[in-house]
Write a structure and sequence with these properties.
Strand content of chain B: under 5%
Strand content of chain C: 25-35%
Structural class of chain C: alpha/beta
Largest sheet of chain C: 6 strands, mixed
Helix content of chain C: 25-40%
Chains: A mainly alpha (123), B mainly alpha (241), C alpha/beta (289)
Order of helices and strands of chain B: HHHHHHHHHHH
Largest sheet of chain B: none
Largest interface: B-C, 24 and 29 residues
Number of domains of chain C: 2
Oligomer: heterotrimer
Shape of chain B: globular
Structural class of chain B: mainly alpha
Chain lengths: 123, 241, 289
């Protein structure tokens, strides 16, 4: 898994890391049950504070992206994980809502919007 | 007690590569010369006191932080310092007695040609030439001088720790001046016969009496030195490091 | 959460400087950056922790023990690194190991020499000839070789080049991988603290200006910039270190007041450096008014 921090970014470091991990998981770039580095290992590798990495893992676990196994560490949540699925569902619905809004703003009719969606489904 | 030993060991490692070889060299030289009746060994104390001298200069700087960092009692650091001082002086003193004894009974100067032998006995043989000073007197003189040196150096050490180096040096200079003045004055009086040589009633008649005096003088000096040590420990207990 | 270090209401007065009511704690397993300008009291505080200086009032507890009564027991478990070497210059590393070994019950010679090798330090050269970075690493090697649970470093990166500083920070990060260990390190080079510290205590003029999680601090302040007429006088009061120049002004402000800010003003997250500078400016204003 690739994690890179930009120092000069306005985004807080924890947000950068969370976003990167989330998008890699969502885009399927990670293997199921792939083990993540421990909280302190990650802190050392990225040269950031332990509290930051702790927060990252806590947030990601709460949102269902990763799971913590007692005594073993943190792992990417399995695909059929309920929370993850729900989250991905949420993301999709959000995107769809956005698409519809944009489409309507552009003056498209409902049918034209659905046609556009079909085109993507066929790809 | 263990802490003091740890400090002594620590300081020894510090000075081992600096002064030990020179002190040993001096001792061996003294031994050799004593065999020829040249008592260089009388100055042994001056040599041995340099053994731990580097510790004094080093510990007045950055190394103070070390004492604050390691798990050791402050009092142990101070006591080790005084013990090093007293110990090295007493060791030198003991060597001096040894070399004096050797000088007294040495016969190796017979190896030298006559002129040199006479020169040596002129300068250094105290058993006959100068009726006023014998080897026995020398032991006593040595005891007095060492006792004084022990007390003086412990006092100066105390002043350096309780006050500071400048005060200690100032005290030392004052003491040297005063002492020189007093001794010169006394010598003048003695020379002019104004004070009869007090030798007769100050110096014990018997040999064992003299050794007793030697021991007594040393005990007083060492006791005094340790007294300065404890005073220093007490006063510096709350000092900043 | 257990605190490995607790400082409560510590005060100490010198002739022309004083520590006033210092209070902060370091939870076990974390790194605290101890920052403040030169003369703010960082070294004095550290010396108080080490019982090298007596405090006038307050308590200091390390590992739950009293810093004065139990100072010897504490120091067995403490690794200390100063900004300069405390060893005799003419000795080499082998001799120094001989010197340090007897003082610590848990001294581990193998560990020590492993670290020395790791740090690329020659064990037969005089330590007085080492570079500053090498001397620092030697002190660290000593601090790490007796199972210390808390490392205290006083300005360890001063005088080090960026490479050496980076190496030092990595050493600390590796040390803290074990969650039973903690680090307190004082520095005025705030970039060291910016990334790696979990907690920060800011000292200014002998007083604690902020103590808490570093993330809380970085979200607490912003630097605002703009034209003087764009800021209300009420808000101007709340600014710290207000600096007016010909074409505008800049100042530090708590994030809580952001919503009162006019859109004409720029606001950027404040770095620790900037916070320190504005605090100092604020103080100068107070002194002149």
């Amino acid at each position: 898994m690739k994690i890179v921090i930009k120092n000069k970014s306005e985004l807080p470091i924890y947000e950068q890391i969370e976003n990167q991990i989330k998008s890699q998981i969502l885009e399927g770039k990670t293997a199921e049950n792939e083990q993540l580095p421990s909280i302190r290992q990650l802190a050392r590798d990225l040269k950031i504070s332990v509290i930051t990495t702790t927060r990252v893992y806590n947030d990601l676990a709460e949102e269902g992206f990763i799971i913590s196994v007692a005594g073993k560490g943190y792992f990417v949540a399995p695909r059929n994980n309920e929370l993850l699925r729900e989250r991905m569902l949420c993301e999709m619905e959000e995107s769809l809502e956005n698409a519809v809004t944009h489409g309507r703003n552009a003056g498209l009719s409902d049918k034209e919007i659905i046609d556009a969606l079909k085109k993507f489904l066929e790809e | 007690m263990k802490d003091i030993l740890k400090m002594l060991q620590f300081d020894y490692i510090t000075v081992k590569s600096l002064t030990v070889r020179y002190v040993i060299g001096f001792i061996m030289l003294s031994f050799l010369l004593a065999l020829f009746k040249i008592p260089l060994g009388m100055l042994c104390m001056i040599a041995t006191v340099t053994l731990f001298a580097p510790v004094q200069t080093i510990s007045n700087s950055e190394c103070k932080k070390l004492y604050g960092m390691i798990p050791i009692q402050r009092s142990a650091v101070t006591r080790a310092m005084f013990l090093e001082l007293i110990g090295s002086l007493v060791t030198g003193e003991l060597f001096s007695y040894l070399f004096l004894q050797i000088s007294k009974y040495a016969k190796l100067d017979a190896l030298f040609p006559e002129e040199i032998r006479y020169w040596i006995s002129d300068m250094f043989d105290y058993s006959s030439k100068y009726a006023n000073i014998t080897y026995n007197d020398l032991y006593l003189l040595l005891a007095v001088v060492s006792g004084f040196l022990i007390l003086l150096s412990c006092y100066i050490e105390m002043r350096a720790e309780v006050k500071n180096m400048e005060t200690a040096v100032r005290d030392l200079i004052i003491i040297i001046f005063v002492l020189s003045a007093v001794i010169s004055l006394i010598s003048v009086f003695v020379f002019r016969g104004m004070i009869p040589p007090v030798k007769s009633w100050l110096i014990p008649a018997t040999v064992s009496g003299r050794w007793l005096s030697v021991m007594l003088l040393n005990l007083i000096a060492i006791g005094g030195g340790l007294g300065f040590c404890e005073w220093t420990v007490k006063k510096t207990a709350d000092y900043e490091m | 959460m257990e605190n490995v270090l607790e400082i409560r209401n510590v005060s100490k007065a010198y002739k022309d400087f004083a520590l006033k009511n210092i209070t902060f704690s370091l939870p076990k397993g974390y790194i605290m950056g101890f920052v403040g300008e030169n003369g703010s009291g960082k070294t004095t505080t550290i010396r108080a922790i080490l019982n090298m200086a007596k405090i006038d009032s307050g308590t200091i507890r390390v590992f739950g023990l009293d810093s004065v009564k139990d100072t010897i027991v504490i120091k067995e478990r403490l690794g200390v690194v100063f900004d300069s070497l405390y060893l005799a210059n003419h000795l080499n590393i082998k001799q120094i190991e001989q010197q340090m070994k007897p003082f610590y019950q848990d001294w581990n010679s193998e560990e020590f020499f492993r670290k020395i090798k790791n740090f690329n330090l020659p064990d037969d050269k005089k330590v007085g000839d080492f570079s500053k970075g090498m001397k620092m690493k030697l002190m660290i090697a000593i601090a790490l070789s007796h199972n210390a649970e808390l490392m205290i470093l006083d300005e360890p990166t001063s005088g080090l080049d960026p490479v050496a500083r980076d190496e030092l920070l990595d050493i600390l990060a590796e040390y803290i991988e074990d969650e039973n260990r903690s680090v307190l390190f004082s520095t005025h080079i705030t970039s060291d603290v910016e990334r790696i510290a979990d907690y920060i205590t800011i000292l200014h003029n002998g007083k604690v200006w902020f103590t808490g999680a570093k993330d809380d601090l970085s979200e607490k302040y912003v630097v605002i910039k703009g034209a003087e007429e764009d800021i209300s006088s009420a808000l101007r009061e709340k600014c710290i270190g207000f600096h007016a120049y010909r074409n505008g002004f800049d100042a530090l402000l708590e994030t809580g007041y952001l919503d009162q800010l006019s859109d004409a003003l720029e606001a950027e997250k404040a770095s620790i450096d900037e916070i320190l500078v504005y605090i100092a400016k604020e103080e100068r204003h107070e002194r002149h008014s």
